[in-house]
């Protein structure tokens, strides 16, 4: 192997020296240009060998030319190749000043993926260039683009991807569907069903609340009318408690707004202290039973109105049991001296704890949160 290489190298140098003077005599640049035109149109300087081995593959010409007289007229190639004293490995190709040219003009070896774009990738729009060797490359195009160099935007709309008669907008590299209401997803393939909730108000009426705090909670309850109430929509119930919890109205039939307001109007504060633990225990056991009109496929929300005073570790334990059971606990605190830490411990998530001053339930955050929790959509195929 080594012997062959040395002989080749010696041969090359002889050839180079032999032609060097000739090249000097000619106008070298003119020569290059003229022959380049020939190469670009023919892919080869010399006639192809008419007998095997055929020189059809340009990458193999070097081999062919060693054996066939026809190919040996490749004087420039011998010269330029040897000038750089290297041949390009199979996966690199020949360039002159960064411009691709036929193998005959090999003066600099470069990866085909690197040289076309002048520092940028050959493949447009974020395509990945694969060097196939033999001066060929392939672009792997990102979704939404096609073409040899990923230069063409695919009009995805031609394939009518949007379902349910939605119109389609082709954008560069992507498309979007204008889904009719109740449908969503990239192709409007998801159908949305309005879902609803059973919301249980848990009202602290114990003597640890001041009168103003209790009145604040009652005012807050008025906003129940902002929910979409109805038998097939949001159903509400109310448990009032001090020492003992009592269900003032249950979910049965889905009370209307007027009915709910009537029932709220007669709620009054009590004289005993609040047993929060007992109240949550009651809700855990009786809050969402079928007998109370709770439905099977609804979200279950508890809105706890209190100042939090008197909540202990047992209460927190029961709140955990309710949450583990899938219930969502919203804590709304009234008054200036709420037990913030205790209420945070009860809430399902920190953002489901709200502190309102006395008599102010117009806080849009609370209302929006309660509304979106109770009236929501589930979208699936
Ligand atoms: C096309 O748009 C959809 C919806 O906006 C998006 O989820 C997706 O990632 C986009 N695809 C591409 C390739 O940008
Ligand atoms: C609160 O109720 C629980 C039972 O739910 C009971 O064990 C506890 O003693 C009560 N607390 C008070 C102060 O009555
Ligand atoms: C629920 O309320 C309805 C209507 O007020 C009532 O008839 C029913 O007895 C209540 N259910 C329970 C378990 O108390
Ligand atoms: C609710 O679920 C219970 C138990 O899974 C079942 O017995 C009852 O028939 C269901 N009720 C409705 C209205 O689907
Ligand atoms: C409640 O639990 C916490 C931590 O679990 C503990 O540090 C605290 O002493 C407990 N409080 C009572 C009154 O048991």
UniProtKB/TrEMBL annotation:
Q: Entry's SMART domains?
A: EGF, EGF_CA, VWA
Q: Where is the EGF-like domain?
A: 114-151, 153-189
* Pfam families, alphabetized: EGF (PF00008), VWA (PF00092)
Q: Which stretches make up the VWFA domain?
A: 198-370
Q: Which UniProt key words apply to this protein?
A: Disulfide bond, EGF-like domain, Glycoprotein, Repeat, Signal
Source organism lineage?
Eukaryota, Metazoa, Spiralia, Lophotrochozoa, Mollusca
In its UniProt entry, what is this protein called?
A: Uncharacterized protein
Q: Which organism is it from?
A: Sinanodonta woodiana
Cystine bridges: 141-150, 179-188
**What GO biological process, any one, is recorded here?**
cell morphogenesis
């Amino acid at each position: 192997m080594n012997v062959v290489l040395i002989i080749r190298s010696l041969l090359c140098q002889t050839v180079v020296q032999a032609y060097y003077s000739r090249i000097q005599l000619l106008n070298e640049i003119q020569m290059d240009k003229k022959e380049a035109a020939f190469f670009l149109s023919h892919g080869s300087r010399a006639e192809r060998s008419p007998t095997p081995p055929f020189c059809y593959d340009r990458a193999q010409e070097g081999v062919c030319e060693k054996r066939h007289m026809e190919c040996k007229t490749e004087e420039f190639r011998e010269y330029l190749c040897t000038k750089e004293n290297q041949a390009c490995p199979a996966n690199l190709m020949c360039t002159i000043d960064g411009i691709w040219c036929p193998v005959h003009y090999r003066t600099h070896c470069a990866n085909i993926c690197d040289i076309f774009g002048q520092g940028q990738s050959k493949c447009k729009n974020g395509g990945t260039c694969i060097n196939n060797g033999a001066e060929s490359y392939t672009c792997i195009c990102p979704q939404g683009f096609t073409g040899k160099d990923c230069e063409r935007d695919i009009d995805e709309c031609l394939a009518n991807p949007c379902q349910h008669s939605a119109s389609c907008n082709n954008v560069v590299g992507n498309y979007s569907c204008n889904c009719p209401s109740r449908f969503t997803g990239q192709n409007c393939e998801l159908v949305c069903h309005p879902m609803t909730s059973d919301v249980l108000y848990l009202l602290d009426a114990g003597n640890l609340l001041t009168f103003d705090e209790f009145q604040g909670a009652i005012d807050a309850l008025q906003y129940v009318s902002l929910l979409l109430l109805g038998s097939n929509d949001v159903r509400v119930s109310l448990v009032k408690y001090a020492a003992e919890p009592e269900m003032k109205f249950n979910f049965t039939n889905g009370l209307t707004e007027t009915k709910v307001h009537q029932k709220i109007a007669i709620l009054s504060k009590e004289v005993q202290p609040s047993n929060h633990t007992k109240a949550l225990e009651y809700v855990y056991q009786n809050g969402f039973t079928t007998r109370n009109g709770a439905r099977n496929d609804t979200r279950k929300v508890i809105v706890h109105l209190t100042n939090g005073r008197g909540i202990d570790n047992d209460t927190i334990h029961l709140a955990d049991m309710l949450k583990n059971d899938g219930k969502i606990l919203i804590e709304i605190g009234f008054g200036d001296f709420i037990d913030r830490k205790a209420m945070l411990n009860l809430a399902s998530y920190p953002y489901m704890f709200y502190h309102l001053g006395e008599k102010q339930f117009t806080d849009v955050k609370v209302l929006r949160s309660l509304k979106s929790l109770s009236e929501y959509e589930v979208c699936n195929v």
